[in-house]
Description:
CATH architecture of the largest domain: Beta Barrel
Largest sheet: 5 strands, antiparallel
Bound molecules: zinc ion
Shape: elongated
CATH class of the largest domain: Mainly Beta
Number of helices: 1
Number of strands: 8
Strand order of the largest sheet: 6-5-4-7-8
Distance between the termini: 42 Å
Radius of gyration: 16 Å
Amino acid sequence: MVNYKQIYEEYYNTLKSGVVPVIICNNCGLSSTNLRTSCPRCNSEQLKVIGAKEGIVYSYTIIERGLPITIALLLVDLNGIRVKANYFGDKKKLKIGLKVKPRYFKQELIETLVFEPAE
Ligand SMILES: [Zn+2]
Protein backbone atom coordinates (compact mmCIF):
# COMPACT_ATOMS: atom_id res chain seq x y z
CA MET A 1 0.00 0.00 0.00
CA VAL A 2 1.27 3.42 -0.93
CA ASN A 3 2.28 5.88 1.73
CA TYR A 4 0.38 9.00 0.56
CA LYS A 5 2.01 11.31 3.08
CA GLN A 6 5.45 10.23 1.90
CA ILE A 7 4.76 10.88 -1.82
CA TYR A 8 3.21 14.31 -1.02
CA GLU A 9 6.19 15.25 1.14
CA GLU A 10 8.69 14.11 -1.48
CA TYR A 11 6.81 16.01 -4.19
CA TYR A 12 6.57 19.31 -2.27
CA ASN A 13 10.08 19.09 -0.83
CA THR A 14 11.39 18.60 -4.37
CA LEU A 15 9.31 21.57 -5.58
CA LYS A 16 10.54 23.79 -2.75
CA SER A 17 14.16 22.85 -3.45
CA GLY A 18 13.77 24.61 -6.81
CA VAL A 19 13.63 21.67 -9.19
CA VAL A 20 10.66 20.24 -11.09
CA PRO A 21 9.17 17.19 -9.33
CA VAL A 22 8.71 14.31 -11.76
CA ILE A 23 6.82 11.22 -10.62
CA ILE A 24 8.00 7.98 -12.21
CA CYS A 25 6.20 4.64 -12.06
CA ASN A 26 8.62 1.91 -10.94
CA ASN A 27 6.46 -0.72 -12.67
CA CYS A 28 5.99 0.63 -16.24
CA GLY A 29 8.24 3.69 -16.34
CA LEU A 30 5.56 6.29 -17.11
CA SER A 31 6.61 9.74 -15.95
CA SER A 32 4.57 12.85 -15.22
CA THR A 33 4.85 16.15 -13.39
CA ASN A 34 1.32 15.77 -11.96
CA LEU A 35 1.10 14.82 -8.30
CA ARG A 36 -0.60 11.44 -8.08
CA THR A 37 -0.63 8.39 -5.85
CA SER A 38 -1.03 5.70 -8.53
CA CYS A 39 0.06 5.27 -12.12
CA PRO A 40 -2.66 6.21 -14.69
CA ARG A 41 -1.33 3.55 -17.08
CA CYS A 42 -0.81 0.43 -14.94
CA ASN A 43 -2.42 1.50 -11.62
CA SER A 44 0.76 0.66 -9.69
CA GLU A 45 1.33 2.54 -6.47
CA GLN A 46 5.09 2.00 -6.68
CA LEU A 47 6.05 5.55 -7.55
CA LYS A 48 9.14 7.61 -6.95
CA VAL A 49 9.86 11.33 -7.20
CA ILE A 50 12.92 12.70 -8.95
CA GLY A 51 13.86 16.30 -9.68
CA ALA A 52 14.43 17.74 -13.15
CA LYS A 53 17.03 20.49 -12.96
CA GLU A 54 17.13 21.70 -16.54
CA GLY A 55 14.98 21.84 -19.64
CA ILE A 56 14.73 23.35 -23.09
CA VAL A 57 12.18 25.89 -24.32
CA TYR A 58 9.90 23.88 -26.63
CA SER A 59 7.58 26.81 -27.35
CA TYR A 60 6.57 30.12 -25.81
CA THR A 61 4.21 33.04 -26.12
CA ILE A 62 4.41 36.64 -24.96
CA ILE A 63 1.26 38.02 -23.35
CA GLU A 64 0.71 41.77 -23.52
CA ARG A 65 -2.40 43.31 -22.03
CA GLY A 66 -1.69 47.02 -22.33
CA LEU A 67 0.10 47.00 -18.97
CA PRO A 68 3.69 48.05 -18.31
CA ILE A 69 4.65 44.39 -17.81
CA THR A 70 4.57 41.54 -20.30
CA ILE A 71 4.34 37.88 -19.38
CA ALA A 72 6.32 35.19 -21.15
CA LEU A 73 4.66 31.79 -20.87
CA LEU A 74 6.86 28.80 -21.70
CA LEU A 75 6.30 25.22 -22.68
CA VAL A 76 9.46 23.55 -21.38
CA ASP A 77 10.64 20.13 -22.48
CA LEU A 78 12.17 18.15 -19.59
CA ASN A 79 13.57 15.17 -21.43
CA GLY A 80 10.20 14.29 -23.00
CA ILE A 81 7.91 15.70 -20.30
CA ARG A 82 6.48 19.12 -21.06
CA VAL A 83 5.45 21.67 -18.45
CA LYS A 84 3.97 25.16 -18.67
CA ALA A 85 5.51 27.90 -16.57
CA ASN A 86 6.32 31.58 -16.57
CA TYR A 87 9.70 32.84 -17.68
CA PHE A 88 11.64 35.13 -15.35
CA GLY A 89 14.61 36.31 -17.31
CA ASP A 90 15.84 38.56 -20.06
CA LYS A 91 13.19 38.36 -22.78
CA LYS A 92 15.82 39.28 -25.39
CA LYS A 93 17.46 35.88 -24.71
CA LEU A 94 14.19 33.97 -25.02
CA LYS A 95 14.06 31.62 -28.00
CA ILE A 96 13.02 28.07 -28.84
CA GLY A 97 15.81 25.71 -27.78
CA LEU A 98 17.06 27.95 -24.94
CA LYS A 99 18.31 25.95 -21.95
CA VAL A 100 16.35 26.94 -18.85
CA LYS A 101 16.41 25.98 -15.18
CA PRO A 102 13.56 26.08 -12.68
CA ARG A 103 13.42 28.34 -9.65
CA TYR A 104 10.96 28.11 -6.76
CA PHE A 105 8.93 31.33 -6.53
CA LYS A 106 6.79 32.39 -3.58
CA GLN A 107 5.04 35.70 -3.19
CA GLU A 108 1.98 36.14 -0.95
CA LEU A 109 -0.44 33.36 -2.04
CA ILE A 110 1.45 32.42 -5.18
CA GLU A 111 3.74 29.40 -4.86
CA THR A 112 5.08 27.95 -8.08
CA LEU A 113 8.08 27.22 -10.25
CA VAL A 114 9.31 29.69 -12.83
CA PHE A 115 12.08 29.24 -15.36
CA GLU A 116 15.11 31.38 -16.10
CA PRO A 117 18.04 30.95 -18.48
CA ALA A 118 20.34 28.10 -17.39
CA GLU A 119 23.49 29.98 -18.38
ZN1 LIG B 1 2.82 2.38 -14.40
